């Protein structure tokens, strides 16, 4: 069995050191990152089996990091945060985190939760590619860049998130509720017309003929399906 890799994203050096010693003592390989930007680089290079993430990163909100990561990867995420409010926990879990542990934490409990999360995924989990290509389009999910024929395509944040969510699930019918929940959150699950407007704007940017879309296909009354 290959050694499983855990990426620790934490700006506190002492906590990173503690996690590294503890997890390596349990037989895991540990890769460290102090910022979200560094984590994005390490995710590409080390292909981790588990992500341990602090929400209070110096360069980016941890919730936004989770949302972007979840668009293309199913790797388990364990939040390790000093934020004890229920609202913070709910926001992190709703955004795609798998578990939440508050600081200060017990080492034994941390290891137990890591083991539990890794048991839910195979040693070599099947994650989607960090680069998605269709037609003459290329999406770099790590760098958050979309190009068409090598030229940068400018999308709004919502348009980008909608595109990558659809494109990372080719052939799968994504319901209105699924899309609204993952892009806008629980309060928007009935706003189908809102979603229709954004899909229309996105089609204007990626379809040769928006009136007869090739990639974003409407499933009447249900949602949308993406064709590569």
Automatic annotation (TrEMBL):
InterPro entries: CheY-like_superfamily, OmpR/PhoB-type_DNA-bd, Sig_transdc_resp-reg_receiver, WalR-like, WH-like_DNA-bd_sf. GO terms for molecular function: phosphorelay response regulator activity; transcription cis-regulatory region binding. Keywords: DNA-binding, Phosphoprotein. The modification 4-aspartylphosphate is found at residue 54. It comes from the Bacteria. Residues 129-228 form the OmpR/PhoB-type domain. Residues 129-228 bind DNA. Pfam families: Response_reg (PF00072), Trans_reg_C (PF00486). GO terms for cellular component: cytosol; protein-DNA complex. GO terms for biological process: regulation of DNA-templated transcription. Residues 5-118 form the Response regulatory domain. This is Two-component system KDP operon response regulator KdpE. It comes from Azomonas agilis.
């Amino acid at each position: 069995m290959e050694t499983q890799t855990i990426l620790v994203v934490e700006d506190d050096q002492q906590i990173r050191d503690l996690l590294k010693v503890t997890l390596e003592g349990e037989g895991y390989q540990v890769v460290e990152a102090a910022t979200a930007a560094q984590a994005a680089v390490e995710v590409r290079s080390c292909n981790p089996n588990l992500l341990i993430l602090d929400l209070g990163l110096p360069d980016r909100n941890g919730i936004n990091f989770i949302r972007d990561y979840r668009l293309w990867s199913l790797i388990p995420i364990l939040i390790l945060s000093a934020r004890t409010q229920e609202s913070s926990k709910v926001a992190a879990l709703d955004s795609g985190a798998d578990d939440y542990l508050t600081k200060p934490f017990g080492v034994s409990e941390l290891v137990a939760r890591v083991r539990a999360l890794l048991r839910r995924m195979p040693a070599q989990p099947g994650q989607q590619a960090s680069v998605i290509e269709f037609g003459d389009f290329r999406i770099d999910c790590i760098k958050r860049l979309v190009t068409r024929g090598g030229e940068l395509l400018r999308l709004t944040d919502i348009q980008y998130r909608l595109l990558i969510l659809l494109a990372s699930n080719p052939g799968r019918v994504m319901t209105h509720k699924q899309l609204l929940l993952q892009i806008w959150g629980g309060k928007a699950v009935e706003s189908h017309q809102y979603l229709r407007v954004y899909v229309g704007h996105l089609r204007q940017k990626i379809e040769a003929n928006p009136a007869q879309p090739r990639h974003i296909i409407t499933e009447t009354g249900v949602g949308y399906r993406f064709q590569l």
